Amino acid sequence: MGIPLIVRAVRERIPVVVQRNSPGRRAAVRGLWTGAELVVTLGVVLLLLVAHQLWWTNRQAREGAERQVRALQEDWGQDRGVGAPVVEPPEDGQGDESGAGGQNGQEPERPAPDRTAAPAAPVAPTAPRWDQAYAVLRIPRLGLTAPVAQGISKRGVLDKGYVGHYPRTAQPGQAGNFAVAGHRNTHGEPFRRIDRLRRGDRITVETRDAVYTYTVDNSLAQTSPSDSGVIAAVPRSNVRTAVGYSAPGYYLTLTTCTPEFTSRYRLIVWGKLTAMRPR
Q1: For residues 211 and 86, is the Cβ–Cβ distance under 8 A?
Q2: What's the pTM value of the predicted model, to 2 decimals?
Q3: Which terminus of the chain is more solvent-facing, meaning fewer CB atoms within 10 Å of its CB: N or C?
Q4: Quick check: is 257 catalytic?
């Protein structure tokens, strides 16, 4: 009885279903795999691009800017006037501190102080050629030292980590507005922290002939890129007309993009010339 049952079971084979990948399924798998590879590759490329923009361009531009500052100083000859004191105009109401009075011990009469006067500046040299670095800007509060070049082109000036001088604005120490621009992010980002400047902070501009000291006086947190009034000879915003100046003077204007990592608006810092010394 048992043998026929075994034979019958062998003869009645259990069907085995073999699943095979259809062409459509294989194509879908290949597509998903290729897509995943592309996403990973794109992610790596983006990371490399970010590293290049945020690290490599800064390093490269800063090194180049430092070399340019050293080259300018060597060209000018640093043995001339190193350490010479900065002569500042006396404060209103102050005079000779030596204690010497006039005749009979009376204080001599002095003319009323001119509140609109600025330190006398030497005769301005001829305008530097395009993209030429010709001055050094220093902001002690920010620990910033950067060369100043003629023009505001990206490739020739700003992307080198330089500060760019706006054409048709005054040169350092001249009456009017010495207006400059600098990157806030990437390529050396010399103006990354100018939003931290406060009224009374000092900014110096050194040229072959003199060192000019400007004192921060005002700022504009945000304005349009087309607001040309901020770099006018008498700087005053065309967008926020209550911000700026109304009288001629000796001004310095720093401009950069804002918010960070965008170029939608401009951040402005203004200063006034308060001292100069010949080199």
Answers
A1: yes
A2: 0.70
A3: N
A4: yes
